[in-house]
Amino acid sequence: MKLVFASRNEGKLAEVRQCLVGSGWQVIDPASIGLTLDVQEDGKTMAENAARKARAAVRTTGVLALADDSGLEVDALGGDPGVHSARYCGQGATDIDRYRAILHRMVEVPEEKRTARFRCVMCLAEPDGGEHFFEGVCEGRIAHHARGSSGFGYDPIFVPEGFSMTFAELGLDTKNRISHRARALHQVIEFLRTYAQPHGR
Ligand code: IMP
Predict the structure, then answer these.
(1) Is 135 helix (H, G, I), strand (E, B) or coil?
(2) How far is the CA of 85 from the centre of ligand 1 (A)?
(3) Structure pTM?
(4) What ligand 1 atom has the least distance to the C-alpha of 167?
């Protein structure tokens, strides 16, 4: 059974692949089938953006499509960057520019007020038009300095609850046990279990 993961983000693709190992589902990389996915991600919510990506992929491929939209919500910054996480600091900015901007805005913020969370909303779009949404959240704190080299995006500045290391220090195996994306994916996997049987796919 195959599904296309509608994202050009290789970090996300690697996480989704690892979480779906043993599930019976093969994850198709859009690049491997020439799918370019030119989708405007300027929706007001993560669900809207995830749905746009999943719809575009199912329309073009005719195969069950999964998309995720995710972001970091920092309490001391009023929930920023949130749904704007990928575009924070404008076009041309790098992951390093983005997390440095957050650290800079938080220089004066004390430990107890550095709470934050990663949120991931996934949309599964079926060839017949059905759409299903799943959400995962991972609570944590913003570190005072970037640490670690694993992962992508804001991983070097995010310390998940119950740990003292950042996602980038903890590595993929630990991240995939507790992350927002892993939590959303577990719900997707549960759904796919029931989905596969009646449809016989
Ligand atoms: P989008 O979901 O592709 O729009 O991107 C959301 C942005 O949020 C990414 O480009 C990353 O900067 C950030 N992000 C989402 N998930 C993670 C994660 O697991 N670790 C670090 N950064 C993330």
Answers:
(1) strand
(2) 6
(3) 0.92
(4) 20
